[in-house]
TrEMBL record:
Keywords: Chaperone, Coiled coil, Cytoplasm, Stress response. Signal peptide: none annotated. Participates actively in the response to hyperosmotic and heat shock by preventing the aggregation of stress-denatured proteins, in association with DnaK and GrpE. It is the nucleotide exchange factor for DnaK and may function as a thermosensor. Unfolded proteins bind initially to DnaJ; upon interaction with the DnaJ-bound protein, DnaK hydrolyzes its bound ATP, resulting in the formation of a stable complex. GrpE releases ADP from DnaK; ATP binding to DnaK triggers the release of the substrate protein, thus completing the reaction cycle. It is found in: Cytoplasm. The keyword Chaperone applies. Residues 1-33 are annotated as: Disordered. It comes from Lacticaseibacillus pabuli. Homodimer. Residues 37-64 form a coiled coil. SUPFAM superfamilies: Coiled-coil domain of nucleotide exchange factor GrpE, Head domain of nucleotide exchange factor GrpE. Its main location: cytoplasm. This is Protein GrpE. It comes from the Bacteria.
Length: 183
């Protein structure tokens, strides 16, 4: 039994010696730095707080950036579409002209095709016409340019006629409809 204990004693003795040296080192360090422990702890807490705030700010910036990027993509092409709307108006006016000459009829047919293609392209780009005729006047989507007296056919605050169509891109008004309102 004595030989068997001797084999275990060196391992146990080494463990005890390491533990004893570690405690002595810790005691020596804490003895010399005892006064600084509180200061170091405060500094660590301060740095941790600054780190957490910086990390939160970075997260907020990323969220804001992603939201702005999504909104830009959502309303991509707004400037181009807005500049095309007067062209659409002019094509519509050209189609309202009565023609009798064979060449003029052929030209009108071409203008009609361009008008239809342009309307289809705008529809595919999620541009929709603001429904105005006969609806209640809404200052967020209508621009009243004239008023007329209300009567039995046109109750007060309803759109009587549309002078220029209005359009939206998704939920954003690109151009309000210019309307005549019953008053």
């Amino acid at each position: 039994m004595g030989k068997h204990d001797a084999k275990q004693d060196p391992t146990q003795a080494v463990k005890e010696q390491i533990e004893k040296n570690s405690r002595a080192s810790l005691d020596a360090l804490s003895g010399t730095a005892g006064a600084n422990v509180e200061t170091i702890s405060e500094e660590r807490n301060s740095y941790e707080d600054k780190y957490l705030r910086a990390a939160a700010e970075i997260q907020n910036m990323n969220t804001r950036f992603n939201k702005e990027r999504a909104q830009l993509l959502h309303f991509d092409g707004q400037k181009v579409i807005t500049s095309i709307l007067p062209v659409l108006d002019n094509l519509e006016r050209a189609l309202q002209v009565e023609v009798t000459d064979a060449n003029a009829v052929q030209l009108k047919k071409g203008v009609e095709m361009v008008f239809e293609h342009l309307n289809q392209a705008l529809k595919e780009a999620n541009v929709t016409e603001i429904k105005s005729l006969g609806v209640k006047f809404d200052p967020t989507v209508h621009q009243a340019v004239q008023t007329v007296a209300a009567d039995a056919d046109h109750p007060k605050d309803t759109v009587v006629s549309v002078l220029q169509r209005g359009y939206k891109l998704h939920e954003r008004v690109l151009r309000p409809a210019m309307v005549v309102v019953a008053n």
